[in-house]
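Suppose a colleague, Dr. K., hands you the sequence of a protein chain of 301 amino acids and asks what its three-dimensional shape might be. Before reaching for any lab equipment, you can write down a predicted structure in token form. Begin with the sequence itself:
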Amino acid sequence: MKIAMLAQNANLYSHKRIKEAAEARGHELDIINTLRCYMNIASRRPEIYYNGEKLPQYDAVVPRIGASITFYGLAVLRQFEMTGTYPLNESVAIGRSRDKLRSMQLMARDGIGLPVTTFAYDPKATDEVIKLAGGAPVVVKLLEGTQGIGVVLADTNRSAKSVIEAFRGAEVNILVQEFIKEAGGTDIRAFVIGGKVVAAMKRTGAEGEFRSNLHRGGSAELVKLSPEERSTAIRAAKCLGLNVCGVDMLRSNHGPVVMEVNSSPGLEGVEGATGIDIAGKIIEFIEKNAREGATKTKGKG
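The predicted structure, expressed as tokens, is then:
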């Protein structure tokens, strides 16, 4: 098979591993810098150009689109979809996962466990928003944040109000969520491929850090999921329409709650913690499912 990967940095561990896994199984994989693509949006003849040349037809595309270039990255991915190339994750599904508010609304509709989450536009509603989230401590999150950036723990109602009003004064959209104290600074990432949890790790935040992201000095170890946690991860992936994703959950007193669903999860932490060949499983999924024009949305929506 001829596979394209949309990525900005070809040297990242995850990108090198996926390329190695593809080539080990006899496939050709080209890493294409997403921002160097440009498109000819012609009627019935969608074309993609890269470094001055028209790209050939690919059997599949692996989107590893950075959060900072979501808008342009999804436009390029939609163009691939319209040429009939099979996407590992579809543009519509990635768009859902990148919009924290929309993803929370979709999961709430499907009855998936979530922390109490509130959202408001009017700064005058700040007191009510904090109250709805159960009162301090609360977690304040930027809608566009990633890797723990733009996440603030407010210990008191007064500090929560100050943080919320500061963000809203800067016209930044935020979510306010209950703080799951019993999680103890740890979370679980379940790696889902094709509707199955193939690996799971527990991440623990660095000393004095409530965020457990590995990018922020956290550590990871193998963890055994409960049937409810496994079911929650699978349902979250299905709800957003993602074939491959990392589902981040907290263990609360009332069961697992989903914090976020990552459509381009890193492989280094989970492969290191579990010893499982995640990259190989991703390529195996593509082998079984890649067919021309098999995209559900064909770039629509």
